[in-house]
Amino acid sequence: MPKMEKVYDISYRHELLGESVPNREKIFSIYEDHTDILVKGAREAAFGHKVNLDDGKEQSDFGL
C-alpha cells in the first residue's frame, strides 16, 4: 500500500472510527521506513534506530 494511502487509512480508522491502531501498523516517519520507538526507563519516547554495539573482546557482533 503506498505511504499516503496508509496514512489516510490509519487516520480514518483512529479519528473517525475510534479504532485503536496497533503500533505495528502505524507510521512513525514518512521519510524513514524503519523508524522505531525507543523507550528508556521513565524518559519520554524517542524515535530513531536501535543499534547494538559490542566492544569486540568476546564476540564481534554488531546488531544494526
Brief write-up:
The chain is α+β, with helices and mostly antiparallel strands and 64 residues long. Helices cover 22% and strands 9% of the residues. Strands 1-2 form a two-stranded antiparallel sheet.
Fold topology:
Layout lengths: L2 H14 L19 E3 L7 E3 L16
Question: If you had to describe this structure to a student in words, what would you say it looks like?
Answer:
There is one protein chain. This protein has 64 residues and is α+β, with helices and mostly antiparallel strands. The chain contains 1 helix and 2 strands. The protein has a two-stranded antiparallel ribbon with strand order 1-2. A hairpin with a 7-residue loop joins strand 1 and strand 2.
Low-confidence runs of at least 5 consecutive residues: none
Instruction: Note the overall shape.
Output: elongated
Q: What pattern of helices and strands is seen along the backbone?
A: HEE
Biggest sheet strand order reads 1-2
Strand content: 5-15%
Q: Look at the structure and give the mean pLDDT.
A: 79
**Can you count the beta strands?**
2
Distance between the termini: 26 Å
Biggest sheet record = 2 strands, antiparallel
* Radius of gyration (Å): 17 Å
Instruction: Give the number of helices.
Output: 1
Helix content: 10-25%
The class by helix and strand makeup works out as: alpha+beta
